[in-house]
Amino acid sequence: QVQLVESGGGLVQPGGSLRLSCAASGHTSSVYDMGWFRRRPAREREFVARFRPTDNSTTYGTSDMRGRFTISRENAKGALYLQMIDLKPEDTAIYYCAATRSIGGAWSYWGQGTQVTVSS
User: Fold this and answer.
1) Which tens digit of pLDDT belongs to each residue from 33-77?
2) Residue 74: strand, helix, or coil
3) Is residue 78 within 8 Å of residue 22, measured between CB atoms?
4) Radius of gyration (Cα) for the chain, nearest Å?
């Protein structure tokens, strides 16, 4: 089994920045793609970003996310990060870390989430 634990959420003013972290533990050799999702209030869960370790490629859910968010991974630590800048109130959400068991596979592992609130 794999455990994912997010951290780094909190309250930030509009225009501010946050860096989310996801620590992976357990059978991490079975982890392939890692990514971030979010669930905004009264919205469906949405894809934010993915990191693929085989070629270090990244994918973002929207062009707006690509412009303000940066996903990165520290393989030695099994850690995943999401740097977010120029945060907007509409970025308020619970952010979840997720991982797959194969390249391009289903998101099988999920963390509990970390709350990000953007408000003045």
Assistant:
1) 999 999 999 999 999 999 998 899 999 999 999 999 999 999 788
2) strand
3) no
4) 13
